[in-house]
Design a protein that fits this description.
Layout (H helix, E strand, L loop, with lengths): L1 H21 L6 H13 L3 H14 L3 H17 L5 H11 L6 H14 L3 H8 L9 H17 L3 H9 L8 H14 L3 H10 L4 H4 L3 H10 L6 H5 L3 E2 L30 E3 L24 E7 L12 E9 L6 E5 L5 H4 L6 H10 L15 E7 L8 E2 H15 L3 E4 L9 H11 L1 H6 L3 E5 L14 H4 L7 E7 L25 E5 L1 E6 L7 E5 L1 H18 L5 H10 L25 H4 L13 E4 L5 E4 L9 E4 L3 E4 L9 E10 L2 E2 L4 E11 L2 E3 L2 E3 L2 E3 L5 E3 L3 E3 L4 E5 L4 E3 L3 E3 L2 E5 L9 E8 L3 E3 L3 E4 L4 E8 L3 E8 L2 H4 L6 H21 L6 H10 L4 H12 L1 H27 L6 E14 L5 E18 L2 E16 L4 E18 L2 E21 L4 E21 L1 E5 L2 E18 L2 E2 L6 E3 L2 E18 L3 E17 L2 E5 L2 E8 L7 E12 L5 E11 L3 E12 L1
Parallel strand pairs: 3-6, 3-8, 4-6, 8-9, 9-10, 10-11, 14-16, 15-17, 16-18, 17-18, 18-20, 19-21, 20-22, 20-23, 21-24, 22-25, 23-26, 24-27, 25-28, 26-29, 27-30, 28-31, 29-32
Antiparallel strand pairs: 1-7, 2-13, 4-5, 12-13, 30-34, 33-34, 35-36, 35-51, 36-37, 37-38, 38-39, 39-40, 40-42, 41-42, 42-45, 43-44, 44-47, 45-46, 46-49, 47-48, 49-50, 50-51
């Protein structure tokens, strides 16, 4: 800010210089003086001061000179210039006869009063003489001086000056209200009631006096309903949040004439933002997090400033009716900014910014920016922060039920003079217990009066222990973090006091905050109102990292990770009445709990199924851990807690040192080693070394119903005795290759007793042989298992693929034993060894078979023949009376397959353009070009092949009276793109590669036509016989993936015979309708062997013959043709079905233009 003020000063200086140059045209110095006065009245103090100074230096008029000195001093006061008060004193000394001397004192006093600096205003009020003032000026003087004494807690002097204005029309009501309040504070209830009754007809005081009158009636025993009213206790902004600290001993209102004296917004230098330092996870395992955590801010509301854009989900107002005791709810989402946050200083917006704000123009970022989602509840009744206790907890319960909010910030509080019985009554009627029972966590500020105890709200758990599980209180430290924040008067953060067990500390001062609801300045926010949201934001981060935690567990995490601060008192070493558990530590809290302590009991970690929680702090304490839930919890720190650890369900992984705790694993639980250490282990469930070794410092006992899951290479070491029974399950993981041979399962330094009752393997590619025992060790022999034994498909695609896979595994074992442990083939084999299911094995075999490359030729053989049949159908229907150009479009869908191989679904689309040439009445020849696309999907590995072919063909037809012969020859050339999933055990990659493809088809048909006349035309019956030849060639290829395949050329050819019948009914109007049926038998098919090698080792390959699809099928369908009257245009189409073990359908449409 300093550099901006300097810039502003220079700009105004130049402006002032310009004004001075312009003034030279005036003929009298009073012109410049009057101009300066106008600038002063317009609050352009810098420019006015420069001009007054210029006039003062030039004038010879003593009165003008003294007036200039007066205004120069006043400008200095308003510009907060250093030495401004000296300028005022110098004015009085230098111009003792000036009529403005007393006015100078009063002006300065009023200025400081309006700024809320009451001690400074008193200094100048005391210098002023009120005898020469007007009546209005004297009333203002007395009221403001009385209020200044009131804020200084000088009741005697405040009463003196308030009494002088009790009959004032302007200040009388306010004076009576404050006199009533001071009487209430001194237990003079009679006087208090008298003063309050005199202003009870004014709406602005009715609500504010509700608490005081109810409390007095209760204490005087006047009303049986008083206790119910007290249950809705008034709460002020005891959490503070300002440079001037409000006190619970002040009333919950301010005078209307002065500016709000609790302005919390002090601009600070925007060039030095505070940025939190994020800590990187320290363990391999990572938490399963949730992106957003809902945070309820129960305060004065919130404005969606630039810093809070995207972080506000709802804004609702909660209003308490003192007559009915009911709370009404109003949605403020579309209201104006002043309604959305009704605080004079936008208190709720500051609190929300500390929690969730983003950095804007160098401002500090909120603790949980990007995580916290603000649900604002406006619980204040007015601009100075008056709230009712019942409103807080009604709002919290409402937000929980309707929006699922569980975390709440309440930066408010007051101190109530109630007995224990009265406090219990307030708590029971407040609704606070409902919030806690429903899983809520509430974070409160301790208050800013410099007391040894926090506000009354903070003390609820003292009177009801059940509430403690959802309660946190936050006090505030100075900026050096050495003690509680206290100012020179002793005011500042309230200590934790008897709330120490649920209390911790944060920063009393929050610097560099953005709040565009007020201005574009950066602000400093003082008070425990700003300390509480620091902890609330951290709680949101904890709940984001550990969404399975309860509110109590989030609370324990915050408390047990705080940095303890010694206050010199005798305590339990965990917390004290000054700082509670100490200064909050965000970086530790987001890594989980820091202590298991009997203060809270054993930590019950109920981790939700599918979630992972990582505790990476070094956990200490005298309590233990209970693992429930089907999720995974990881202990990665060097832990020293001494309580027992029990695993009831799910997985507890130990990757650090937890040797001071005795572990019990029950039937539904797994203790997982991660190169960690435990104390003694009693295994009634499952202990596993699946993710690393496990060292037991103590004894290991395994019951008959338990199991040890041994990952080969990760042994279980026991420093004490081992007594074993139950099952041994041998497995492997992708992290490390398992070589064949003898491996140590368990080593017990203190001796081994018992044996495993059964030994199993969970790896589909490993087999376990002999298991041996000696006095300290368990050994097992591990060998390789053929993939064909475990595959879910026997024969077919698995036969050759299993041979290839077995060869690869054997070579990997050879390489590993020779010391080549980092070879890609060894790493690949390690992934395969981790497979435990037959389906997993089959996925690898499907991938290694390269079946798509071999099967594509067989698929194209049939699809090409069917598609090219459209040329035959065109030729059989073609007349020999005219030459012409024709076009047709054919769409075909088929299904092919063979036992043990893929089921292949194909969609074929072909477009042909041709020309018929009539040679004479008996002969026709022609040619065509075609474009064909074949899209096929292969079932076993979700592979795809797309073939694009450009074809060329010739055809001819010759008539012998009623008989005919026709023939076609077709050649196509293009490519096939293969999209293949390559499975390497635990991961899948996609390979996309193309190879050249060519096809050749020939077809010869002979038939005889029998014509019969009908009533509407003629019917032709044509039986026919045919022979065909087809071949498909695909070039070899080599995939780019490390685990991909290298495949040889693939050729396929077949010879087929066909027999069929056509029926054609020609009508007199040029329309022809017919049907046909045809049987096809492939009498000879030759499929060349395909050689497949792995890119992992090209020297290892296998040869296999592609699958032989169906050799006979039956097709039948309908055809239609229409010739225009002049026979220039011919339209034709047909549709047929393919019937074999599978099915297929074809449709064809086209036209011909005769020339």
């Amino acid at each position: 800010m300093i550099k901006y003020l300097k810039l502003s000063f220079l700009m105004v200086f130049f402006s002032g210089t310009l004004l001075a140059q312009q003034s030279s045209v005036y003929t009298h110095e009073l012109t410049e003086f009057n101009r300066a006065v106008e600038l002063y009245k317009d609050k352009q103090y810098q420019a006015a001061q420069i001009l007054f100074d210029k006039v003062k230096s030039k004038t010879d008029n003593m009165e003008v000179e003294s007036d200039c000195a007066y205004y120069i001093a006043n400008c200095a006061i308003r510009l907060d210039q250093m030495g401004a008060d000296v300028l005022v004193e110098s004015f009085v000394e230098d111009y003792p006869t000036s009529t403005k001397t007393n006015q100078a004192y009063i002006e300065v006093a009023h200025y400081y009063f309006d700024q809320g600096n009451y001690p400074k205003s008193l200094e100048w009020f005391d210098k002023a003489d009120s005898n020469n003032m007007s009546q209005a000026e004297r009333e203002k003087y007395n009221f403001q001086k009385g209020y200044a004494y009131f804020t200084a807690k000088n009741t005697k002097e405040a009463t003196k000056y308030f009494n002088q204005v009790v009959n004032s029309k302007t200040f009388g009501s306010q004076a009576k209200y404050y006199l009533g309040y001071m009487s209430y504070e001194t237990d003079d209830y009679k006087s208090a009631n008298q003063y309050f009754e005199q202003v009870s007809d004014q709406d602005k005081y009715k609500e504010k006096m509700g608490y005081f009158q109810a409390d007095m009636n209760f204490k005087l025993g006047k009303s049986p309903l008083a206790l119910a009213i007290v249950a809705a206790m008034l709460v002020g902004c005891g959490g503070g949040g300002s440079s001037s600290k409000p006190s619970t001993s002040t009333p919950p209102t301010n005078p209307t004439t002065p500016t709000d004296p609790t302005d919390p917004t002090t601009p600070t230098d925007p060039t030095d933002p505070t940025k939190p330092v994020e800590k990187e996870p320290s363990v391999v395992d990572t938490n399963t997090t949730v992106a957003k955590v809902k945070v309820g801010v129960l305060d004065s509301g919130v404005v969606e400033t630039e810093s809070l854009k995207g972080s506000i989900s709802s804004i609702k107002k909660y209003s308490f009716n003192t007559s009915t005791g009911e709370v009404t709810v109003t949605d403020l989402s579309n209201a104006s900014a002043n309604l959305q946050d009704n605080g004079n200083s936008k208190h709720g917006t500051f609190v929300s910014t500390i929690i969730a704000g983003s950095s804007v123009n160098g401002s500090a970022e909120g603790v949980a920016n990007g995580v916290a989602e603000i649900y604002a509840a406006q619980t204040t009744e007015n601009g100075i922060g008056t709230s009712y206790t019942k409103t807080f907890f009604f709002a919290a319960n409402d937000q929980m039920m309707k929006n699922g909010v569980k975390l709440f910030n309440i930066s408010s509080g007051s101190t109530w003079n109630l007995t224990d019985e009265e406090m219990i009554a307030v708590i029971n009627q407040s609704g606070a217990l409902d919030v806690v029972k429903n899983g809520g966590l509430l974070v409160f500020s301790s208050g800013n009066e410099g007391l040894n105890e926090p506000s009354s709200l903070a003390l609820f758990p003292k009177f009801n222990a059940e509430i403690e599980k959802g309660w946190l209180v936050v006090t505030g430290l100075n900026e050096d973090h050495t003690e509680l924040y206290r100012d020179d008067s002793g005011e500042g953060a309230n200590a934790c006091g008897v709330a120490a067990k649920w209390c911790l500390a944060a920063d009393y001062v929050n610097n560099n905050l953005s709040n565009s609801a007020l201005s574009d300045y950066l602000y400093s926010f003082h008070g425990t109102s700003g300390a509480a949201p620091q902890v609330t934001g951290t709680a949101a981060l904890v709940w984001s990292n550990y969404p399975w935690m309860t509110a109590d567990q989030v609370r324990q995490t915050l408390l047990t990770t705080a940095d303890y601060m010694d206050d010199g008192s005798v305590n339990n070493g965990l917390y004290n009445e000054t700082y509670g558990w100490g200064y909050f530590n965000k970086d530790k809290a987001v890594n989980g709990v820091g202590m298991f302590t009997k203060e809270f009991g054993n930590f019950d970690a109920n981790v939700t199924d599918g979630y992972v929680g990582v505790f990476s702090n070094d956990i200490k304490g005298d309590a233990g851990l209970i693992k429930n839930g089907n999720g995974r919890l990881v202990l990665s720190g060097d832990n020293s807690y001494t309580g027992d650890t029990t695993v009831n369900s799910g997985v507890l992984k130990v990757s650090g040192d937890t040797s001071s705790s005795v572990f019990t694993v029950n039937g539904g639980g797994t203790l997982l080693g991660g190169n960690g250490t435990t104390g003694s282990v009693n295994n009634y469930g499952n202990v596993s070394t699946g993710e690393g070794t496990l060292a037991v410092k103590g004894d290991y006992t395994q019951s008959k119903d338990a199991s040890l899951t041994y990952k080969v290479g990760n042994e279980l070491t026991v420093s004490g005795k081992a007594n074993i029974d139950g099952a041994l399950n041998v497995t492997a993981t992708a992290a490390k290759y398992v070589q064949t041979g003898t491996h140590t399962v368990l080593n017990a330094d203190g001796g081994l007793t018992g044996q495993f009752s059964e030994v199993n393997t969970k790896s589909a590619f490993l087999t376990v042989g002999n298991t041996a025992y000696d006095s300290n060790n368990v050994y097992t022999d591990v060998g390789l298992k053929s993939a064909s034994e475990t595959a879910s498909i026997k024969g077919g695609v698995s036969t050759a693929s299993a041979q290839l896979t077995d060869k690869l595994l054997a070579k990997a074992d050879e390489l590993y034993k020779s010391g080549d442990t980092s070879n890609n083939l060894v790493n690949y084999a390690a992934q395969l060894q981790a497979i435990t299911t037959a389906d997993g094995v089959q996925a690898v075999l499907n991938s290694n078979s390269g079946s798509i490359f071999a099967e594509t030729s067989s698929v194209l053989l049939k699809n090409q023949s069917l598609a090219n049949g459209s040329i035959v159908r065109h030729l059989s229907d073609a007349g020999l009376d005219a030459s012409g150009v024709w076009v047709d479009y054919t769409a075909l869908t088929t299904k092919n397959g063979a036992s043990g191989w893929d089921s292949v679904d194909s969609d074929v689309y072909s477009t042909s353009v041709g020309v018929d040439f009539t040679l004479n009445d008996n002969a026709l020849i022609g040619g065509y070009v075609s474009q064909l696309k074949d899209k096929s999907e292969y079932s076993l590995n979700a592979n795809k092949a797309e073939t694009d072919l450009t074809g060329f063909g010739v055809y001819g037809k010759y008539l012998f009276s009623d008989a005919y012969m026709l023939g076609t020859l077709h050649y196509g050339l293009g490519d096939t793109e293969y999209s293949r999933n390559v499975n390497s055990g635990l991961s899948t990659e996609q390979s996309v590669i193309k190879s050249d493809t060519s096809v050749l088809n020939s077809y010869v048909e002979a038939g005889r036509n029998f014509n019969m006349k009908t009533g509407s035309g003629s019917l032709d019956v044509t039986p026919f016989f045919a022979a065909s030849y087809a071949s498909v060639k695909t070039d070899g290829l080599s995939e780019r993936l490390t685990t991909g395949l290298k495949v040889s050329d693939s050729d396929a050819e077949e010879f087929g015979l066909h027999a069929g019948l056509r029926l054609t009914n020609t009508f007199s109007n040029g329309f022809t309708l017919g049907g046909f049926a045809q049987y096809t038998n492939i009498v000879d098919r030759d499929l060349s062997k395909v050689s497949v090698a792995s890119n992992l080792d090209n020297d290892i390959s296998v040869d296999f013959t592609p699958p032989d699809f169906d050799k006979d099928y039956f097709i039948y369908g309908l055809n239609a043709k229409y010739e225009t009257p002049m026979s220039k245009w011919v339209l034709f189409g047909n549709a047929f079905a393919v019937s074999d073990d599978d099915s297929g359908y074809l449709g064809q449409v086209g036209f011909k233009y005769n020339f």
